[in-house]
From TrEMBL:
PANTHER family: TRANSCRIPTIONAL REGULATOR REDD-RELATED. Residues 224-268, 772-805 are annotated as: Disordered. Residues 926-1064 form the Bacterial transcriptional activator domain. Signal peptide: none annotated. GO terms for molecular function: DNA binding. The lineage of its organism: Bacteria, Bacillati, Actinomycetota, Actinomycetes, Micromonosporales. This is Bacterial transcriptional activator domain-containing protein. Residues 772-798 have a biased composition (Low complexity).
Amino acid sequence: MAAAGYGKTTALRETLPGAVWCADPDPGRLAAGTLAALAAERPQWIVVDDLPPLPAAAGRALLAAAFALPEHTRVVLSTRRPFDAGAGLWRGRGALHEVRPAELALDVDAIADVLAAYGLVGQESDALPARLRDATDGWPALVHLAAETMRASGVPSELRDLAEPGTPLASYVDEEILGPLPARTLRLLRDVAAFAPVAPGLCAALGHPKAHAALAALARTGLLTDPTAPPPRTDRHPPAYPGPHAAPPMTAPCPRPHADPGPTGGWGDRRAVRAGPRVVPLVAAVAARPDRRRAGTAAAWYERHGPPLSAARAHHDAGDPARTAAVLDAHGAAILGAGGARDIVELTGDLPLSPRLTLLRGDALRTAGDIGRARRAYACAADALGPDDPGVAWRTGLVHYLRHETHEALAAFGKARVDPPDVSTVDGALVLAWTAVARLPHGDTATALDEAFRAVAAAEATGDDRTQATAHTALALCLALTGDPAGADRHHAQALHIAERAGDRLLVARIQVNRTFRLLRDARYPEALGTARLAVAAAASAGHANLHAIARCNEASALSRLGRHDEATRRFDGVMRAFHRLGSRRVAFPLVHIADLHARRGFPQQARTAYQEAVRVARDSGDDQALALALAGLARTLAVEEPEAAAVHAEEAMRRAGRDARVPALLGRGWVAAHAGDRRAATADADLAAALARELRERAGLAEALELRAAVTPDPASARAALAEALAIWRDGGAPVDADRVLVALGGLPGAGTDERLDALLAARRLAAAHPPAAAPRAGDDAAAPPAGPDGATAHPARVATGRAAPPRTPLHAIAPFHVHRRPLSIRTLGQFEVLLDGRPVPASAWQSRKARDLLRILVARRGRPIPRPELAELLWPDDDPARTGHRLSVLLSIVRTVLDPQKRCDQYVVADAAGVALDVGRLHVDVEDFLADVRHAARLRERGADADARALLTAALRGYADDPFADEPYADWTRPLREEGRAAYLRALRTLADLGRAAGDVEDALHHLGRILERDPYDEPAHRATVATLTAGGRHGEARRAFARWAAAMREIGVRPPPEDVLVRSRPRTR
């Protein structure tokens, strides 16, 4: 049920695509048999569209006919008029459900899509979708007509101009919406259209004493709406809704005609603006008939019953500037806090202003984002009251603070007379509160905390709610930056309670912005996103442009951590445009966040540019906090390519960082030290950052400190414990990208199990899918091209040894903190034997003797099992005198230990005693061990039915299989067992992948792996048979016959009877 243009038909066609539509909406014929005839076809839904107004008897008959249909059929009645005849009985039984206009209205995002379709993206203001939503209340036809007009004529400064006489929108409203209304209802609508909220008492005062029924009808059809009502439920899944005859369960609260609240005092500050039902603004612009006498009557009624803004507006329309000024003088602060900034600007534009009203006008301009005009208004007030007047001083300083001109802000606050008794006034308390906040970017937390406590005491002495909420918010900020997060939460909660009690949306927005900041630091990202959106809504409702931009910035930060990077990027772009429009230097903070996002997405050059711009802006504004954050991020970005410049930036970040920015500064310096190879310094910074993050309850900083600690510790067990704790923080916080980054690091640790490596593989794939490739590898980067397998594929990303001064240029490493010592020692046996320290091959000169390399290869071939010294000596020096070889073996062991551990920390890799020698394979990475473990684990995954995971694991494992183990030592007997086991596992993996490919219907993949088996063993009959079967099943009979001929020829070569030709007919792909 909704008026014309609400999209009823469109919504029904989208929601019920298989419904039967009744071509004859005549209610008599419907009740007499049309519905029953349609139900005979057993449809789930019958839709009767555009039902005309019905007499009571006809309505009851129609409903009776509908509910007499078989249970398998449901009926939807669509109408422009209220339909009540006989409905109460069925509604009471829960069998009849009404879909109302609020369910059909477009939300802000949908309106943004409509504007984009009309080519209006980015025009005039990022707030245009919200403005149009407010002007139309989401009425679809009005949204489209407005968009069409704006595309042709541009976006007007006031959207009501879209409904000027003669415009398409005005004509549509007159003909389709107002024209069909009953005459009495139309007269009522025209009389109340200019006023809001609309209440029965107001209607009675204007000559409509019995308006309840008409108001209810206007509300149910969507002409009267309540923008303050909660959003409706939008469950649009009819089959899941209970009841055989239920209509689609799209129910919405209907705005009730505003009850008469009694005397003005009963409204209080909470109702300072026009809360409650109103005529849809663009409909009101067409329907209203200006009348000063009627406006005077409405003004008198609103003065008695509220809200104050409605009274001021009606007095203005009645041409009574004195009464307008009186209402604003008495209730201006409440109106401003409740979101009436633009109304105050409009109403005071042609009033004679006292100094008090001049300050109010300046407050409204400042809130609306017009900082220049606000500054001029305050200057006018200062001429009358003096610059040392506390009310002038805190407002002037606040203008500077909002532009992030903190030095100028402190100078303005310092001019105020705030000595007793002035300090206990509202203005005196606000001077103290804002001075405390302005000191924080400069790191003067002790003085700020003292002033904040004084502000709270002064505010409580005034008894003013807004002043108390502001003071508690200032104290909460100071406590958060001085190591008392619990106290900060307590005062934020107290401030929020007071602000909500006062109905001050502006204060609510400010408090929610601060709460979002704390939630982001505490790595509670879903909660931070929800709180940020509350702040966005409150700031938009309050009309505060600066707070709205800050709230959007926090929302974007939460989206970024939640992995919703495209949304975050769009939000950040809008924030930047908003700050530039406001002329604010606060732009340094979104620049830092944008740089952080670029760094996570693998765009190092864009990250560097954004950090450098943030540094410049922060220096110009004297914002040490933003400067420290920007310098720390820049240091991390430059740590690999420009280590000296990175070190300079990191040290300056430490000097500039106050307590709030110290964790990021320590992390920046720690990563620079890590890349420079200074483990001790990096470890010290990681530990300091972790300790401070715990103290400040900043779990995000703690997780990053743990990652740094894991990156530089040489002990895999310690690294695993640190990464496991970081992973828990990121997972609990809902940060999937950060969690995947840690999973990849865990899978790369020496001794990682097969489950950890599989998790790392899947995480690396998610990261690669979510982020575009970074810059191409540079020539000469020895890790830019990981070892290739037999098919030319590169190695598994979780197995590429990284930990060195120049990380590989892969998407994964572009977005992840570089783990400097993730794999300090790796041994490659698949193909050419090679030892890598910190990612770099050990040069031949380091071995001093080929026998030393042979010793290590033998130990690797024994796979961690001890080998007796005599046996080892015999393998190295066959037929030599054992009395001589014992000393030689000791010398070789010393060389091997030095090669594997140049710093000689301990015998952590080679375990030797008088009886034997072994390699501790649990403390280093041996590629063949990982390969064999992965093949075994894939088999277990298949047994559990996890075919997709098994396929992913084997595919990655084969990428690292360059050749059989010890392929460069083909004749040594001690290499044979491991080589044969590796080759068998390789063929088993290929066979499994071929089976999985056929089961998944991926013929090309199956043939690829079968072909690789035949390359290794041309006489492998099962592979030939599977190839022929796969080709035959795929209908590729010519290829199947040629494959059969190769099979037969191979069998003849080794003296085996060739297969019979009927195999070509009988062959079917074998699957497990």
